[in-house]
Amino acid sequence: MPEELPLIALPTEQTERADAASNRRRILEAATELFAARGPDCVSMQDVAQAAGVGMGTMYRRFGDRAGLTFALLGERHRDLQEQLLRGAPPLGPGAPAAERLHAFGRARIALLDDGEAQMLLTTAKAESATLRGPDAAYRTHLAVLLRDAAPALDVEYAVNTLVMAFDARLHVHFRYERDWPVERIQAGWCALADVWLAAGAGAGV
Amino acid sequence: MPEELPLIALPTEQTERADAASNRRRILEAATELFAARGPDCVSMQDVAQAAGVGMGTMYRRFGDRAGLTFALLGERHRDLQEQLLRGAPPLGPGAPAAERLHAFGRARIALLDDGEAQMLLTTAKAESATLRGPDAAYRTHLAVLLRDAAPALDVEYAVNTLVMAFDARLHVHFRYERDWPVERIQAGWCALADVWLAAGAGAGV
DNA sequence: ATAAGAAGCGGAACCTAGTCCGCTTATTCA
DNA sequence: TGAATAAGCGGACTAGGTTCCGCTTCTTAT
User: Number of helices (H) and strands (E), helices first, in chain B?
Assistant: First the structure.
């Protein structure tokens, strides 16, 4: 039996009108270009709307807010990773021991964060954390499943949260550019956290 | 020898001009009243300035930004807690074993968060986390000292971050009001996290 | 084919955090 | 006491995210 399916929802439902779908695509393309060209902190929603040739209303109808647009832009990479988690080869995919799968996942996720994602997420810093609504929301299930199997003695929900909070974009930027840590140190730290939960939870259960 | 002194800076330096100090006081009083009366999410910086009888320039000269004002409002409670950590009776103050001190601190800090602080911090959600600049910034040192002594085998800086990230206001509100957890569960989760780091780090060191 | 209605659209208006700058006032020192 | 000066002040202004609403366009059922 495969794990639960915490797939990131594909934004394009079939009930979307043709012009709406084309606008969505144009907005995403325009945003991708502008973000790449100027950096995400020098691109306003106006800029994107103008470049895409749509009005503000359209932007906000499609994506809800700036965070929604950002998450949509990040969606593809995360759908790939998620696909690997569900059906890829071990250690990312099923088949490897929990500790190895956790490590592989953590490293991969932090690598994405390090590859421009953190900067993008920082520009969305409104009233909610990416952890609860953004890409990482989808990984909670994955982590919960792994922990529940391998460390049943834990308050799995709490442990999962410590693990995803560690993907916080501001924290990543802090470590990386204010403290000059190499990515590997952040990844190692995360793996240690995962191990530590596993060790603590393995005892009582099974 | 006492621990290092990560004291939250008192905002009133003696070099502050008399009118400036009085304005600071009036702003803080006005903000306290308005926040209490309407809730922090229904009070703009304009509102506070008007109620205090000062201009916007004064607000921003005194407190830098909305987050600065909020942190100042929270300051007193945190100075109290910090005082207890440094010079109070065990288990908060010096003298108790590290695990007990960590538990006592975590519970106290989460109690503050639960007592209105989370809602206030949510309205500041700009480009930085309270973890890096707000009240919790001051607790990093405390945690680092305790961990360094009791668990020298760890990457203490990373572990400290997982511990303070768990004080995230959004996360707290999520657990508390969207998932309806009792405070005690959050506190227990945090204590478990602290224990788990201690257990992992105690082995190799000393 | 066409009319009815839902879905979508544009962009001006709004709200609020944060900045700027010319004027005012407390302080200090002769 | 009375300049000189640095600190502080007010409030109009800017910028950017978000909302609103009257108009347009796609869809579909007849």
Answer: 11, 0
